């Protein structure tokens, strides 16, 4: 068993008087690909927002690689190796795909580049940008204006921008939301491929049960702020509590 990359212990988060997370505890072993499912409003996105430092929890601890990250700001958490796709990064719609990726790589490496920068310093940046472009299958679109890409390709670009941060843990909040069935299938294949090749831990929130059961090693079920089940897809699909509160709804 790998050591844990993430330990969440007794996490509480309220907005005003509403308790959104109510004592959430789980651990993720390094290298795992897993999902969080649960009804709308269960607190899934809030959990991601607390892990990435956007919101401070009211109580509880979060350790990343054994280090407590509660109290850190998002800009301090990202460099430790946690990235959230579709939020931390944002696409500049008027820039080309290539320019967007280049900007993300440069920002991550904190290089102050100008027109006097020697080419020898640019080469590794260009290589990295090309590698990211290839890894999400957007090489043919490098010179397209990003805002004109189809929805599925914009999500691919967004994944590339998150990967530019060299995360050890990548959080994906509903990566296939709003996609056509074909884009959905392609995105799932992409995510699985990236996970296999890049040696990173992935945690995603997803509604589509075929996707959840197809690519998760482990599934966690969050129901109104409480984790009610955790297990392999097979265990989860047979769990009476899960069937009652969630799968049984025909969601
Ligand atoms: N910033 C916020 N301020 C107040 N309430 C919030 C905020 N973010 C989320 N909530 C509330 O928390 C609950 C859970 O939301 P969310 O985490 O987005 O659920 P999910 O992602 O599981 O659908 C919802 O009732 C939502 O209205
Ligand atoms: Mg959500």
In brief:
With 251 residues, this protein is of the alpha/beta class.
Word description of this protein:
This protein has 2 domains: 1-88 and 167-251, P-loop containing nucleotide triphosphate hydrolases (Rossmann fold); 91-164, no CATH class. The protein has helices spanning 44-51, 74-77, 97-109, 119-135, 151-163, 181-198, 209-215, 233-238, 240-245; strands spanning 4-15, 18-29, 33-37, 59-64, 67-68, 82-85, 169-173, 201-205, 218-223, 226-231. The protein is α/β, with parallel strands linked by helices. α3 packs parallel to α5 (151-163) and α5 (151-163) packs parallel to α6. It has a 6-stranded mixed β-sheet with strand order 6-7-8-3-9-10, sandwiched between helices. Strands 2-1-4-5 form a 4-stranded antiparallel β-sheet, with helices on one face. It has 9 helices and 10 strands. The relative contact order is 0.18. A hairpin with a 2-residue loop joins β4 and β5. It binds adenosine-5'-diphosphate (ADP) and magnesium ion.
Number of strands: 10
The number of domains: 2
By helix and strand content, what is the structural category?
alpha/beta
Biggest sheet, in brief? 6 strands, mixed
Helix content: 25-40%
Q: What radius of gyration results from the CA coordinates?
A: 19 Å
Q: Judging from the principal axes of the Cα atoms, what is the shape?
A: globular
């Amino acid at each position: 068993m790998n050591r844990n990359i993430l330990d969440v212990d007794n996490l509480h988060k309220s907005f005003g008087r509403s308790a959104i997370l109510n004592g959430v505890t789980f651990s993720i072993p390094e290298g795992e690909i897993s999902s969080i499912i649960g009804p709308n409003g269960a607190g899934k996105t809030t959990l991601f927002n607390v892990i990435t430092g956007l919101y401070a929890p009211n109580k509880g601890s979060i350790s990343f690689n054994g280090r407590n990250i509660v109290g850190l700001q998002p800009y301090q958490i990202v460099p430790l190796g946690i990235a959230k796709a579709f939020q931390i990064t944002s696409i500049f719609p008027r820039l080309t795909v290539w320019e967007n990726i280049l900007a993300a790589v440069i920002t991550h490496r904190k290089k102050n580049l100008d027109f006097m920068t020697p080419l020898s310093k640019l080469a590794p940046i260009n290589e990295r940008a090309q590698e990211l472009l290839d890894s999400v299958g957007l090489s043919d679109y490098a010179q397209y204006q990003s805002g004109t890409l189809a929805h599925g390709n914009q999500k691919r670009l967004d994944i590339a921008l998150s990967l530019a941060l060299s995360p050890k843990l990548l959080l994906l909040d509903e990566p296939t939301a709003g996609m056509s069935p074909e884009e959905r299938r392609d995105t799932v294949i992409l995510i699985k491929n990236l996970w296999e090749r890049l040696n990173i831990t992935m945690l995603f929130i997803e509604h589509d049960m075929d996707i959840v059961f197809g690519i998760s090693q482990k599934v966690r079920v969050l129901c109104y702020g409480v984790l009610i089940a955790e297990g392999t897809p097979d265990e989860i699909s047979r769990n009476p509590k899960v069937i009652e509160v969630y799968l049984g709804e025909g969601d």
